[in-house]
Amino acid sequence: MERDERILEAAEKLFFERGFDxxxxxxxxxxxxxxxxxIYRHFQGKNEILSTLFDRAIDALLMGMPESxxxxxVELGELVRGFIKFAQTHRMLAGVWEREHRSLEGEHRRRYQxxxxxxxxxxxxxxxxxxxxxxxxxxxxxxxxxxxxxxSNATRSGGIAxxxxxxxxxCDMALASLEALxxxxxxxxxxxxxxxxxxxxxxxxxxxADMYDATxxxxxxL
Length: 222
Fold this sequence. Notes:
This protein is mostly helical. The protein has helices spanning 3-18, 25-32, 36-39, 46-63, 72-89, 91-99, 106-130, 136-151, 164-178, 185-188, 205-215.
């Protein structure tokens, strides 16, 4: 393995286990089997290492996106499937990508935001076609919330091992949660905390059942 790959692999593991701020360059070097000063022959510092890991995460997500222009529901199912595959097969990288985006600085941060925007917009555009009538901000919120759900097991320290069964469960849950955008009561009344308006605007049990039924036609095979 090339030295820069060893450095990235060591940093990915340490950032996942201890967080970006909890790891120093010397510790990355020790884990990679090189001196801390040798790292600077490959990277300008920790921020560039993190930026490179983020590039790898975005590359994996973009490569896993389906072709656009076909059936929008099928496309949505494939977006969900691709995201779950990323979280399950790149567990530590996914965890770093989810938790450490605020640690990026300067141009590294701006470049990441441009690439991240490309991925999020693909989700929002697909959701806009599947669930018309919602604002772009609302669809981006739905995208972030759904992705957090799909990341929840894979990126948690001590989480249940990723299996095809867990992947299928997360796929069902993600698609069912997005069906909240298809419930007309969400457009008629704002979501409110129970006790403030008697639950008006909150999903009823019958709506949850309808959401589950709706996922059966678009659930991709994992």
